[in-house]
């Protein structure tokens, strides 16, 4: 028997000369020199087995991957943890391989390249990667991947892109090994295929085992395999290692081992030494080149009965690593100190923390602040006893002379107005002058008294101050006292809120989308219809547009146009909000047009309404906003080419602003807004176009002729560029100079809302009382000598006439900007029809504005809208037919009085505040440019708001105007959701098709009816984590709440013979990244929402949503616990009389709400939610609690039972006995 001595063959450990004393040179059996160095429990503990091990070929690292998808590296033979990171949440690590760029981790469906520090380089997955098992880095630095799939996939590691796929047959490829001449691939059937490294074509095939291939390795000219053979109709482990000589492509004498071989590797430092491993933990070193019997020395890895899953050999041959099924890593070495590579690169470690230099106790110069304060629980040395210290208070600074001069004494108390030169509730003290630089004078301000220039509050973005109760204790009524509902602004891409409001008040569009329903999962038309239904029913309470924004984010076109903004201040700084508004309205109109092209004609009491001529491209959007245009291109050679097309909006083209006069001085030309619109609708311009006759691009005269006028005219003004904005500003200045209208010099009294309330309220009898009384609200505050109106270049009305030759004539309407005459003008509209024969009357109805804060450009940009709500909407919401302007700012809605109507068309030009307005069905999108007027700089904020000085001239960016012809006067709205929605079941999970689910769908004889009880509960996952900060006083403040997404919805029958049986239990599929499944509180596990691995009843949110909408529309009564938040996140508005919330039923006034778990234990005697939450269990519990409440109500014992409940809760600290959770 040939014996190898480690001292003779092992390379030097330190990279220097061979030290024979490092190893025993005695007569050791082959493999006997390896000893156990370390045995550790890997990350993941015994819950996850070690599925992959790999020694780093560049550094002294050992990499481990486990069945939980986690990767950890260990440094040197001491196995010190170096890096640790998660690769996949559900799939195990199949194989690890190191390259120069980092570590490659293979899972069954993806490949990830990470730096050795743990940072991701790329993560690649595709449809070609289905059930991966192995990978191999080729000589050309590409990656081959194979598995239980009929093809190999080659990946470019430099770009992270797939290069090609190669067919390998149905047996797949489960093992890949690298050889200088071949790519060796083993399949599950026991064959090893040798392929050309360049073309990957099959060169040779070796039939190694008749049953299955377990493992093989190749080194030099030898290929050795182990596996299973078929014996008597069953598979058995073959005790022989099959050896093949690659020079002759034939098998040579097999090698017998003493245990069932499962894994094998060549030891890299030796030409023919092979390490063979069994699943039970034995390993043996054999020599494939020896003709004698192999060594009988067998090592045993202590696995505690667990099977070995993987092992690897170091490149130096000095170390072997084994991983078992309970998470243990065993490292064997040839000595106490081994290296993994002959020549390793240094490993990068984190910079050590520099120690702090000591300070002598007598050192008086070094400031103590250079030493950070340590954390300690006891008293510090600086905490002197009270008897040794004397408190000295800071001297109060002198009172401002301006306050003393303006003070009025009433008995012993002096009253003075706040000069506004100091921050409220803060008193400045003189700075410390001891050896430090300080500023003697405050910062200069361009405004008097240091006043900061700010945006009026009604234009600012309202920041919600979240508490531990979230939205529950936030009073939205302070911001909206109207009957209309706003939209919450805490979601990503909620900048579109006020543009959605503009679309909502387009009556024909609203009715059409409420009637629309299709089977597409992400349809903007459907989601807008659902959102409009919420706005109809919410009655002033804000709605959350999360489902619409979710569908909006999934559209690749929206992302390509830059309409999807990351939720960060940097993204807002880079975004151009004026351009964003214009692109958004263009994209949404086009998207809804394409989604509703098959929409049937709108019916009005059985008759088809008037609309554009029908064609295959007709839709409700084209019927309302569309216009037919004939475009004629005339080349200078005389050839003409005409083309008919449809458009949803027009672009304003401005004429030349300046006219050259004598002396070559340019003077601006005055144009009316009607002239610009006429010029843009009948546009003639020279463009470069292809001429078929000249066969070349030629300057071509392009003429646009209208064939029909739209019902709603959309004008894109393009004022995100300086020339257009300058044109508007110049026209406004010329118009006001011509009419001699200047800023008034007289200031009326302070408005009522800015006065201090009178202590006697409405009981005050003083006729000259200057304090505020509620009864004064009914009095007019208009100053007779004060002119509120300035002439605006933008008219409130336009009249457009279409000539037979396609030309248009546009003139301004009879209604002027004087806001005091607006109502009177509306009453006289009927009398002017005879004078405007042939003209269509278009009126301004809404303005959406982008307001830019000059103090923080981009960060505090806000989009608002002014909308003239028609009598139809008022009748629907509050029953009174009137027409009124409102200001919409997310969830803030304020009525615009007649004295503030210049806020709509704009009056002042001299402001440093940019505002973009959108006007729609009577709507305008404009840009505002505001600066503080010189004559009004001494006005207070209240006076400026009252005078209308901040009412800004709109530099129109996008205009949508509607015809006065009542073509869509009384459109019928019928819910498109019918009872057959319960018959359509969408199942997305492939594994769930043949499983039994814990619910029974509704039968035909038990369809829902009005008043039917339905118990419901929902579970949620987190898409974005909550952002919070810790204040200086230690309290926690929420900056942005977490974004939730519904993950499971369950509904249970509340009455009938099958009471308590669920009929809906849907898991909601999501395409967005989930950052927290909240398993403890939701019961949702990773993988439950993934269609490829889920075994749940997985469906789309839209499919479940329309079922709930049907239940709401039919009038069922929902029973649940905390349903308010559930409905809010799902985007449903349920009338209060249809909700039976046990959280509110079992609550005393002004007392805390009780958890469902404690209520179930106290009233029902059952313990629920022991380990996790289950929505079916919670629904049933809420139903039983409601039954209990009705019993107490019949016995007139509700109040008594609630008092007992709160007493028991206080005694038990609201904990269920026998548990630790509250």
UniProtKB/TrEMBL annotation:
Bias (Basic and acidic residues) ranges: 809-826
Reactions this protein catalyses: Exonucleolytic cleavage of poly(A) to 5'-AMP
Domain USP: 485-914
Top EC class of this enzyme: hydrolase
Biased composition (Acidic residues): 827-836
Entry keyword Transmembrane helix: no
Database matches in PANTHER family: DEADENYLATION COMPLEX CATALYTIC SUBUNIT PAN2, PAN2-PAN3 DEADENYLATION COMPLEX CATALYTIC SUBUNIT PAN2
Functional note: Catalytic subunit of the poly(A)-nuclease (PAN) deadenylation complex, one of two cytoplasmic mRNA deadenylases involved in general and miRNA-mediated mRNA turnover. PAN specifically shortens poly(A) tails of RNA and the activity is stimulated by poly(A)-binding protein (PABP). PAN deadenylation is followed by rapid degradation of the shortened mRNA tails by the CCR4-NOT complex.
Protein name in UniProt: PAN2-PAN3 deadenylation complex catalytic subunit PAN2
Gene: LOC106461818
């Amino acid at each position: 028997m040939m014996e190898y001595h480690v001292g003779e063959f092992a390379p030097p450990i330190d990279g220097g000369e061979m030290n024979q004393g490092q190893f025993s040179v005695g007569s050791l059996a082959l493999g006997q020199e390896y000893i156990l160095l370390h045995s550790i429990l890997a990350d993941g503990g015994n819950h996850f087995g070690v599925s992959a091990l790999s020694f780093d070929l560049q550094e002294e690292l050992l990499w481990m991957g486990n069945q939980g998808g986690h990767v950890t590296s260990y440094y040197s033979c001491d196995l010190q943890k170096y890096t640790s990171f998660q690769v996949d949440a559900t799939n195990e690590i199949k194989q690890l391989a190191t390259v120069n760029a980092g570590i490659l981790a293979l899972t069954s469906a993806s490949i990830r390249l990470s730096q050795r520090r743990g940072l991701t380089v790329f993560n690649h997955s595709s449809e070609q990667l289905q059930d991966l098992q192995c990978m191999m880095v080729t000589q050309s630095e590409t990656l081959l991947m194979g598995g239980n799939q009929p093809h190999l996939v080659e990946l470019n590691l430099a770009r992270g892109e797939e290069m090609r796929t190669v067919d390998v047959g149905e047996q797949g490829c489960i093992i890949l090994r690298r050889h200088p001449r071949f790519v060796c691939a083993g399949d599950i059937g026991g064959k090893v295929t040798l392929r050309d490294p360049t073309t990957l074509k099959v060169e040779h095939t070796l039939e190694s085992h008749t049953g299955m291939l377990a493992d093989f390795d190749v080194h030099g000219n030898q290929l050795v395999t182990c596996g299973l053979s078929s014996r008597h109709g069953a598979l058995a482990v073959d005790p022989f290692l099959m050896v093949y000589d690659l020079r002759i492509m034939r098998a040579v004498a097999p090698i017998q081992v003493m245990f069932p071989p499962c894994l094998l590797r060549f030891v890299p430092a030796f030409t023919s030494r092979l390490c063979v491993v069994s699943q039970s933990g034995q390993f043996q070193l054999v020599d494939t080149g020896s003709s004698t019997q192999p060594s009988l020395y067998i090592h045993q890895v202590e696995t505690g009965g667990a099977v070995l899953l993987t092992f690897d050999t170091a490149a130096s041959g000095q170390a072997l690593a084994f991983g078992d099924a309970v998470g243990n890593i065993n490292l064997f070495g040839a000595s106490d100190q081994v290296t993994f590579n002959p020549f390793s690169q240094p490993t990068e470690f984190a910079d050590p923390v520099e120690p702090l230099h000591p300070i002598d106790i007598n050192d008086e110069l070094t400031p103590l602040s250079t030493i950070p304060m340590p954390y300690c629980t006891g008293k510090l040395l600086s905490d002197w006893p009270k008897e040794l210290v004397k408190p000295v208070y800071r001297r109060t600074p002198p009172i401002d002379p301006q306050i003393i001069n303006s003070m009025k004494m009433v008995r012993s108390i002096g009253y003075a107005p706040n000069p506004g030169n100091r921050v409220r509730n803060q008193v400045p003290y003189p700075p410390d002058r001891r050896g430090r630089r300080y500023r003697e004078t405050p910062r200069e301000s361009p405004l008097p008294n240091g006043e900061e220039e700010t945006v009026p509050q009604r234009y600012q973005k309202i920041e919600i101050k979240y508490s531990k109760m979230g939205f529950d204790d936030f009073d939205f009524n302070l911001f909206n006292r109207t009957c209309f509902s706003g939209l919450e602004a805490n979601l990503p891409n909620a900048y579109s809120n006020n543009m959605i409001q503009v679309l909502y008040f387009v009556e024909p569009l609203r009715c059409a989308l409420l009637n629309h329903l299709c089977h597409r999962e992400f349809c903007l038309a459907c989601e807008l219809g659902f959102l409009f239904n919420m706005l109809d029913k919410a009655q002033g309470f804000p709605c959350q547009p999360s489902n619409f924004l979710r569908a909006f984010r999934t559209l690749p076109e929206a992302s390509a146009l830059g309409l999807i903004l990351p939720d960060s201040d940097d993204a807002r700084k880079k975004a151009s909000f004026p351009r964003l508004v214009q692109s958004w309205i263009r994209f949404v109109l086009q998207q809804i047009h394409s989604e509703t092209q098959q929409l049937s004609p709108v019916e009005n009491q059985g008759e088809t309404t008037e609309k554009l001529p029908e064609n295959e491209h007709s839709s409700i959007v084209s019927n309302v906003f569309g216009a037919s245009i004939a475009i004629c291109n005339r080349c200078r050679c005389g050839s003409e080419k005409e083309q008919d097309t449809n458009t949803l909006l027009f672009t304003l083209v401005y004429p030349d602003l300046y006219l050259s006069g004598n002396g070559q001085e340019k003077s601006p030309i005055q144009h009316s807004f009607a002239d610009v619109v006429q010029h843009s609708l009948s546009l003639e311009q020279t463009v470069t176009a292809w001429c078929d006759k000249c066969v070349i691009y030629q300057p071509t005269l392009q003429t646009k002729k209208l064939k029909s006028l739209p019902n709603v005219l959309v004008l894109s003004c393009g004022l995100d560029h300086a020339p257009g904005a300058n044109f508007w500003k110049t026209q406004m200045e010329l118009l006001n100079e011509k009419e001699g209208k200047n800023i008034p010099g007289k200031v009326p009294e302070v408005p009522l809302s800015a006065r201090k309330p009178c202590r006697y309220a409405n009981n005050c009898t003083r006729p000259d009382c200057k304090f505020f009384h509620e009864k004064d609200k009914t009095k007019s505050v208009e100053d007779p000598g004060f002119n509120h109106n300035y002439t605006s270049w933008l008219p409130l009305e336009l009249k457009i006439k279409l000539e037979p030759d396609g030309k248009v004539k546009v003139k301004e309407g009879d209604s002027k900007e004087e806001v005091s005459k607006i109502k009177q003008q509306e009453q006289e509209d009927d009398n002017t029809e005879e004078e405007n024969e042939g003209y269509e009357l278009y009126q301004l109805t809404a303005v959406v504005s982008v307001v830019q804060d000059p103090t923080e450009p981009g960060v505090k940009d806000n989009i608002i809208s002014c909308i003239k709500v028609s009598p139809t909407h008022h009748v629907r919401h509050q029953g009174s037919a009137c027409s009124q302007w409102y200001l919409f700012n997310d969830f803030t809605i304020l009525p615009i009085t007649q004295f503030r109507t210049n806020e709509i068309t704009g009056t002042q030009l001299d402001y440093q505040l940019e505002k973009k307005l959108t006007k729609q069905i009577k709507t305008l999108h404009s840009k505002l440019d505001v600066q503080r007027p010189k004559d009004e700089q001494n006005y207070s904020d209240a006076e400026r708001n009252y005078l209308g000085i901040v009412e800004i001239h709109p530099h129109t960016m996008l205009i949508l105007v509607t015809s006065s012809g009542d073509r869509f006067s009384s459109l019928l709205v019928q819910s498109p959701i019918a009872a057959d929605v319960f018959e359509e079941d969408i199942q997305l999970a492939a594994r769930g098709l043949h499983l039994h689910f814990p619910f029974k769908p509704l039968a035909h004889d038990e369809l829902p009816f009005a008043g039917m009880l339905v118990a419901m509960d929902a579970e949620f996952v987190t898409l974005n984590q909550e952002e919070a900060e810790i204040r200086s006083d230690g309290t926690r403040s929420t900056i942005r709440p977490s974004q939730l997404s519904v993950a499971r919805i369950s509904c249970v029958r509340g009455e009938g013979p099958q009471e308590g049986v669920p009929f809906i239990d849907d898991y909601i599929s999501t395409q967005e990244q989930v950052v927290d499944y909240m398993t403890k509180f939701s019961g949702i596990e990773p993988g439950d929402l993934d269609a490829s691995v889920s075994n749940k009843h997985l469906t789309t949110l839209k499919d479940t949503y329309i079922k709930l909408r049907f239940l709401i529309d039919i009038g069922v009564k929902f029973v649940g616990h905390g349903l308010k938040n559930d409905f809010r996140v799902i985007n449903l508005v349920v009338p209060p009389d249809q909700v039976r919330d046990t959280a509110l039923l079992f609550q005393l006034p002004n007392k805390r709400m009780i958890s469902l778990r404690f209520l179930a234990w106290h009233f029902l005697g059952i313990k629920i939610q022991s380990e996790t939450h289950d929505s079916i269990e919670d629904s049933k519990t809420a139903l039983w609690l409601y039954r209990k409440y009705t019993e107490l109500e019949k016995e007139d014992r509700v109040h008594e039972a609630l008092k007992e409940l709160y007493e028991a809760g206080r005694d038990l600290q609201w904990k269920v006995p026998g548990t630790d959770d509250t």
